[in-house]
UniProtKB/TrEMBL annotation:
Topology in the lipid bilayer: Multi-pass membrane protein
Subcellular location: Cell membrane
Organism: Shewanella vaxholmensis
Membrane-spanning segments: 18-36, 56-75, 82-102, 108-130, 142-161, 173-192, 234-255, 267-286, 298-315, 321-345, 357-378, 384-405
Chief location bin: membrane
Domain Major facilitator superfamily (MFS) profile: 18-409
Keyword field: Cell membrane, Membrane, Transmembrane, Transmembrane helix, Transport
Homology family: Belongs to the major facilitator superfamily.
Origin organism lineage: Bacteria, Pseudomonadati, Pseudomonadota, Gammaproteobacteria, Alteromonadales
Name of the protein in its database record: MFS transporter
Length: 415
């Protein structure tokens, strides 16, 4: 009896370490990803480019991150979940040294393209790691906490970027980023248990005779298996379109708040990212709300909240803009949590590939959203951005409606 209790305690401790290690890794990743969004004014000044052109830094990082997710999905299915996470994080910390001596804006773009590839490992693998190692109930809780960690990392990264932009030079800022990243990676390295990646390892042992072509065909079949699932495709579209709107709204609102009549300072403009806190709270309660109200209701409510939040900013006061972004962030993170949980629970095989396909669409949305909303910004400033966002919300509503139709009228036979 005592042996059984000891085993249960060991499993609980291992699960807790896994959860916190991936959450800390998530915070490190999202600090590195979104720090530049809080530094847009300093980037524009230091590299002598316009504010709107500086927003492309987020797009290029998201672009390389999106496609790298697919590579990590294949890699983690072959060699396991632990090694790609740890190696990519250490390389990320070292790559921050390159930012210190970036010679010009083009050089900065190249380094951020490289970093996007390194940033992809954790989001590509984390949910599959949770699904394989945790019980279903624990997995839902871990998923909610993990998304909350994403939000915290995004908030800290953007605010840290704002502080750096206001008070530090470019080189001083990048040295600080290097040290923060190094400390975070060391903590993840200590916390993450070296679990036996049973699925990946068993595949490599039972299929030693497969040729490279056969392995490639197997990988492609894993991706196509999920892409032929209509419900998966719709969830991928919902996540991509939602992120396309939300994350780029936060970029352009900084430019709006730094112009007349507000004329906020660099640091004051980044305080708008505190509105992410509503998303942090919403992520934590998503598992409970999913169980109580169901997925479709949450999608509907989050869509309405994002619509009202976007429209509220048109009143163009500090209060209405703040309330509008609090609502938009809340609605977005509810949607993102629902999508993440749906993909992880629906994927009965090739889980890392299912998650990476979702996140590929998600970050492609972020990459495309910058140039897309920039067109509206040049035409009508912030009102134009809201109009562009309403078009995206219409497409999101269509996808949610189609998803509900498939769930209630179409039965998919799983292979």
């Amino acid at each position: 009896m005592q042996a059984v209790l000891d085993t249960m305690i060991d499993h609980k401790q291992r699960d807790t370490r896994l959860m916190w290690a991936l959450c800390v890794a998530s915070v490190v990743v999202y600090i590195n990803l979104y720090l530049m969004q809080g530094m847009l004014p300093l980037i524009a000044e230091h590299f002598a480019v316009s504010g709107s052109k500086a927003t492309l830094i987020l797009s290029v990082t998201s672009f390389s991150l999106a496609f790298s997710l697919l590579l990590y999905a294949v890699l983690s299915d072959r060699i396991g979940r632990h090694t790609p996470i740890i190696v990519s994080l250490w390389l990320l910390a070292l790559s921050n040294l390159l930012l210190i001596w970036a010679p010009d804006f083009n050089g900065l773009v190249l380094v951020r393209l490289l970093q996007g590839a390194l940033l992809a490992a954790v989001p590509a693998i984390a949910m599959a790691y949770f699904k394989e190692q945790l019980s279903p109930s624990t997995m839902l809780k871990a998923a909610g906490i993990y998304i909350m960690a994403n939000s915290i990392g995004g908030i800290v990264g953007r605010l840290l970027g704002g502080v750096m932009s206001q008070f530090l030079s470019w080189q001083e800022s990048m040295w600080l980023l290097f040290l923060v990243t190094l400390a975070g990676v060391a903590l993840v390295n200590y916390l993450l248990p070296s679990l036996a990646d049973s699925q990946a390892m068993s595949q490599s042992k039972t299929e030693p005779s497969l040729s490279k072509r056969a392995r490639l065909a197997q990988d492609l079949h894993g991706f196509s298996h999920h892409l032929t699932d209509a419900q998966m495709r719709l969830v991928y579209a919902i996540g991509g379109l939602t992120f396309m709107m939300m994350v780029n709204q936060f970029s352009f609102i900084q430019l709006h708040l730094m112009a007349a009549p507000y004329e906020w300072s660099r640091f004051q403009a980044t305080l708008i990212f505190l509105c992410y806190s509503s998303g942090t709270i919403a992520s934590y309660f998503t598992a409970k709300w999913l169980a109580k109200f169901g997925q479709h209701k949450l999608y509907q409510w989050s869509w309405c909240v994002m619509l009202l939040g976007s429209l509220l900013t048109l009143f163009d006061t500090t209060l209405t803009i703040s309330l509008g972004f609090l609502m938009t962030a809340c609605g977005f993170f509810l949607t993102h949590s629902c999508c993440n949980s749906f993909v992880a629970m629906r994927a009965s095989r090739d889980r890392a590939k299912a998650t990476s396909l979702y996140l590929c669409c998600y970050y492609l949305g972020a990459a495309i959203g910058g140039p897309y909303l920039m067109m509206f910004w040049h035409e009508a400033q912030w009102r134009g951005v809201v109009m562009g966002s309403l078009t995206l919300l219409a497409l999101i509503a269509l996808a949610i409606t189609r998803l509900h139709y498939h769930q209630t009228h179409v039965k998919r036979v799983l292979v």
